[in-house]
Amino acid sequence: MSSTKRIALGVSAAALALGAGFGIAGMASAATTPAPAPSTSATTDATPGTTDGPGRHGGHGRGGDRAGVQVSGLAAKLGVDEAKLREALKAFRDANKPAAPPAEGTKPDHAAREAALAKSLASSLGIEESKVTAALEELRTAAQADRAATLKTRLDKAVTDGTLNQAEADAVAKAVEKGVLGGGRH
Length: 186
Hints:
Elements: H1 3-32, H2 71-78, H3 82-95, H4 110-125, H5 129-161, H6 166-177
Helix pairs in contact: 1-6, 2-5, 3-4, 4-5, 5-6
């Protein structure tokens, strides 16, 4: 077998292993997460990359916000009460609930949804829209950094354990960074 095929096979196996690991971690997180609170997320609801817990975004954020807004962190950044923020998020989610799933092959416009979220929260909470936008961006950036650090730790362990060699780990990290594999910008 040529070295190119071996590397491709190794990268594919690593990607599958990482995907399975992320899926299992997500299911475990979802199983132990309290009932979901109002949310917004770039993944499924509105706000990209924000969570109510360290390092996880989209779909199943830790700490009670299944679709991703880190309510406590956002409330602190905005200087508002968490309960008021949760109400504003619920109102946004209810007002923007899609009537039907997106057509196959189409992707939601996360930037437009985040802009609508910022406008809605600003209006509901009596805060400048630019302040809400900046807070959401800060939370997304922090969540992305947490995910990158978690991936690096997992890949380093895989190299140490002999599951992957360094070239394979580097290839997986690059694929995630470039959005070829899950875990990149959502």
